[in-house]
Amino acid sequence: MSDSAHTTNGAASAFDADATDEAGSADGTDSIDGPTATDDAVSADAGEYTFDDLSVVMGTYNEEEAIATVLEDVDEVTDGRAEVVCVDGSSDRTPEIAREHGATVIEQEPQGYGVAVREAILTPDRPVVVTTDCDDTYPMEALPEFLAEINDGADVVSGDRLYHGAKAMPAFNRLGNHAFAAVASLLMGERVHDTTTGMRAYRREVVEEIGWTENTGLSAELLIRPLMRGYDVRERPIAYAERLGDTKLDPIGGGAAIAKSIVTVCLEEQLRRF
Ligand SMILES: Nc1nc2c(ncn2[C@@H]2O[C@H](COP(=O)(O)OP(=O)(O)OP(=O)(O)O)[C@@H](O)[C@H]2O)c(=O)[nH]1
Ligand SMILES: [Mg+2]
Q1: Mind listing the pLDDT tens digit for each residue in 149-206?
Q2: Which residue stretches belong to region Disordered (predicted)?
Q3: Best mutation site among 248, 249, 250, 261 for ligand 1, i.e. most ligand atoms within 8 A of its Cβ?
């Protein structure tokens, strides 16, 4: 294990919830600030996951400007060992380019972010799944750190784009994302910083054990439900780059849908506790 302490967002202890037996955490290890071993993520230490255990999954909808870059980054960072699954609703060359890069492509009528990402998460059977957008905004260089956190006992590792300021994000979206995090924190009683990030790592058993239903609000749901059920959920700061290609998000309608999901899911999870 490396001795270097990893960066935290300074409030990560809010995520230091004990992994319960119900939560099915591997060993209950939940130290946020303990040493991590990014390098170990790619080695094959006994019982530790490697990139051979990792699926990187995404919805893809007319992303021909970005898809080659995203898939090349995954390939380079994981030495070609991560499996890639794209659930695609495109009318452009995105699926061809994805296949040329060795991805598994599942075709699906476009029905929104969450419908595509649900299929993408549930399709592979590797034990660790990482979601990302196919727009070159998320840093695939963070994959080793995310896997190292899972090997350190995390059930969910969530990329916090706002920690570094997210200057590449449109100001309206940035404001909305701060507001979503504030509302979710209030309703959960736990501080979270980025509820709508597209880049997360999940232990497969977590996404199989909890029920999830949201579409545009899926990302928020998949942070809130595990956190409120006592899984070991950790936010980690990530870089965030300007998007290649056109957005598929309607900031007003999408924002309203996300706000509704946050309130609904938080209330459902609070009620579940009684
Ligand atoms: N298959 C499929 N993919 C979708 C659909 N809607 C969005 N996506 C993909 O889901 C990911 C997220 O969409 P984005 O347009 O990046 O949404 P966003 O991240 O909220 O907005 P940006 O800030 O513009 O990146 C992208 O990879 C899209 O191509 C859909 O209906 N079907
Ligand atoms: Mg995006």
Answers
A1: 999 999 999 999 999 999 999 999 999 999 999 999 999 999 999 999 999 999 999 9
A2: 1-41
A3: 248
